[in-house]
Every structure is written in C-alpha cells, then in structure tokens.
Amino acid sequence: MPESEKSSILRLRITTKERLDQLRHPGQSYDGILEEIIDFWHMQHSQQDLHQMRPPTPYPPAATPAEMRAKELSWWWPPSDRTPKNKK
User: Fold this and answer.
1) Which terminus of the chain has a smaller tally of CB atoms within 10 A, N or C?
2) Is this prediction's pTM over 0.70?
3) Radius of gyration of the chain from Cα atoms?
4) 3-class secondary structure for the chain?
5) How far lies 29's CA from each of 4, 15, 77, in Å?
6) Residue 1: pLDDT band by 50, 70, 90 thresholds?
7) Could you read off the pLDDT of 14-45 as tens digits, one per residue?
8) Average pLDDT over residues 40-51
9) Would you say residue 80 has pLDDT above 80?
C-alpha cells in the first residue's frame, strides 16, 4: 500500500461529528473536511503565532525528576557557597 494511502482511525464525540457534518460539502469525506480545516487554520496562523500560543515549559525537556525537584527547592534552599562553615 502506498504511503499516501495509509490511514488511521480517529475517535470523535458524537457532537464533534455532528459539527463536522454541518461543515462538509455533499459527498465530501471526513478526510477532506479535516484537511480543509487544517489548511484554513495554517493560513490564519503564522509560525510566530504558534510559538506564542504554546505555554512555556518550566524546565528544559531533558531535566530529570531530581533536577526538577532541586529547582523547586532552590527558592528557599541556600546555595552551597552560603552554607555555614564547619565549626572548629
């Protein structure tokens, strides 16, 4: 089967399917209406808009759970250079 012919199954709520049915032209496939919606969305939004719409991530993606926890505690945990010196 050619790559362009491969398909996938999407599960939609009945209300979403009803809304798609209202937008479809007679005889238009669901694939056709979804492509039309996606194309329209891309025409309306630039890459700059996409970047601004994404919520900022609090940690870099490569942060480990330990690194994330250390960052959470860093607001009250004193840095190592301010820890008390050993008493003599």
Assistant:
1) C
2) no
3) 25
4) CCHHHCCCCCCCCHHHHHHHHHHCCCCCCHHHHHHHHHHHHHHHCCHHHHHHHCCCCCCCCCCCHHHHHHHHHCCCCCCHHHCCCCCC
5) 16, 17, 59
6) low
7) 999 999 999 998 999 999 999 999 888 888 77
8) 71
9) no
Number of Cβ atoms within 10 Å of the Cβ of 85 = 5
Euclidean distance between the first and the last CA atom of the chain, given in angstroms as a whole number = 78
Residue 3 confidence class, pLDDT cut points 50, 70, 90: confident
Tokens linked to 50: 């996409």
The token pair that represents 80 in the structure block = 């190592």
**Cα–Cα distance, 28 to 33 (Å, whole number):** 7
Say what the alpha-carbon torsion angle 41, 44, 46, 48 is, to the nearest 10 degrees.
Answer: -100
